[in-house]
Amino acid sequence: MVKRDNIDDESRENGGSTSRSLIARLKEDDAPAWRDLVHLYSPLIFYWCQKSSLPNQECADIVQDVFRSVVSGISTFHKDKPSDSFRGWLRIITRNKILDHFRKTGREAHAAGGTEAQLRLTQTPDIDDELERDPDDLQAEHALYLRAIEMIRKDFKEENWQAFWRVVIDGKSATEVADELGMRPGTVRVAKSRVLKRLRQQLGELLE
Question: What is the pLDDT of residues 46-103, one digit of tens each?
Fold first, then answer.
């Protein structure tokens, strides 16, 4: 039978300074928070850019432009209504950067006498509409959630983390996981609850 966490482990898993939300730390210009944000969202922004048929190098450049805009604008981010979200705000920034890119390349190509870039600009897909239709979006967003979950893994004892993972990610029952790990079903449920609580505390706004 797995023993209960000792006092230090339980304190660590119940909060402390790590419970501050990532978005609050971003607004305080916390360097580790910015590294976490880049790790969390770079692949998704890159994916949004790829959906506009941009080559990888141009996607990488736009990702950097997006984060520069986030750095300058994070202090102004807020939710005016329940439907507002950080991801939606970030998607709008990304879309604008993509459109700016097409306008820039379109002007350059048109100045040289070409029409291909102008045609490409006028046919730029609407990212929001495409993201509603494309089944690959579910996979991209699922990967975002997995990255978010892994970011808080260090805050939990391994057996508690495994209990959470097997219930939430693998879809097993608390009883099944308890038998596998030598824990009580109630302890498995507590472990699951703690991890989800920490996820909401630290990253909830960023995942909406």
Answer: 999 998 888 999 999 999 999 999 999 998 887 777 667 888 889 999 999 999 998 8
Q: What secondary structure does DSSP assign to the chain, as a single string?
A: -PPPP-HHHHHHHH-GGGGS-HHHHHHTT-HHHHHHHHHHHHHHHHHHHHTTT--HHHHHHHHHHHHHHHHHHGGG---SSTT--HHHHHHHHHHHHHHHHHHHHHHHHHHTT--HHHHHHHT---HHHHHHH-THHHHHHHHHHHHHHHHTGGGS-HHHHHHHHHHHTS---HHHHHHHHT--HHHHHHHHHHHHHHHHHHHHHHH-
Angle between helices 56-73 and 31-50 (to 10 degrees): 140
CA distance linking residue 187 with residue 192, whole number of Å: 9
21: Cα separation from own chain's centroid: 13
Closest to 69 (Cα-Cα) out of 45, 104, 103: 45
- pTM equals 0.74
Residues 6 or more apart from 10 whose CB is under 8 A from it?
A: 4
Give me the DSSP letters along 143-163: HHHHHHHHHTGGGS-HHHHHH
